[in-house]
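Hi everyone, sorry if this is the wrong subforum. Our group has a chain we'd like a structural model of before ordering constructs, and none of us has done structure prediction before. Sequence below.
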Amino acid sequence: MAPLPIQLIQVKLEDGPDGPRPFQWRIAIETPGQPVGRFLKAIATVFYVEGTPSRGYRLIIERDEPYRLGAYRGGIVIGHVAPTDMEQLEHALRAAALFGGSAAEASRTWAYAAMRRLYMKNFILELPSQDALKTMLDEALAAWECGDL
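Answer:
Right subforum, don't worry. Here is the predicted structure as tokens:
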């Protein structure tokens, strides 16, 4: 079976009491889609954290979820995983540390820490800086807004 793409995606959270919140970063492993009429519905296992280091947090794993709906705001492919290595990948993601103050900051620092773990395990061959990832995700957002994704 072909390797599955590992993606860094961003999702829009609901506005908070202080207005719009920054996008949350998540790791998504796209799996073969399900046919819906003439199209394939994009399905993935999505990993992200909920909470903050100071108030407690947990890793959320959503399996076989349609992920390009609703809050999705674009993403980039950061690596690939063989289906037989999904358990190792999940173990690496569970070991990623969480830093940052707000929930949005925590999601980004966890996603980057997760990417570092995946890089150490050779699931990712190149590890861009957080600033470079932000730029790439801004470009993905622009493509999403134009309907190119």
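For your construct planning: Helices lie at 86-94, 103-120, 130-145. Residues 103-120 form the longest helix (18 residues).
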